[in-house]
Amino acid sequence: MQFKDLSITFHVHNIKECTEFYCKYMNGIMTFDCGWYATVKLESLAAPIFISFMIPQSDGYLQYKGGATLNLMVEDVDAVYQEVIKKGVKIDQEIADHDWGDRSFDIKDPIGNTLLIYSLREIKGEFKEALL
Would you kindly state where each structural domain of the chain is located, as residue ranges? Predict the structure, then answer.
C-alpha cells in the first residue's frame, strides 16, 4: 500500500483562530474556506501538505477532542526553530537531538495539537534495532 498524500481534518469550534495560526506561523496559504470548512496548504519539498478544519455540523459529525501530533519534517530544523521564535510562537519542547533519529522541537496549535518539527539525524543505540 502506498500513500501519495496526507490530509488531516480537525473538528473545531474556533476555525478562524486555527487557520490564522497555520497561515501566520507556518507560512500556510488558505486554499478553501466555506465558513464551516477551511483548508490550509503548507508547502513542502515533496508534495504540499493540506490541513483542514471543520466546525461540527448537526448531521452527525463528531466533535474533535484534540490530542494529535503532526510530525513535520524540514530540511533545516535549526533555521525553522529560529524563524518560529522570531514570529513569537511559544515553544513547548526546546530543540534537541534524539537517538531515535531526529533533531526536533515542539509547539502547540490553538486546539492543543502538538506540531513536532524535525530534521533527520543518525539513529543511535537501541533505536537502530527498531528499524524494520
Answer: 1-54, 66-132
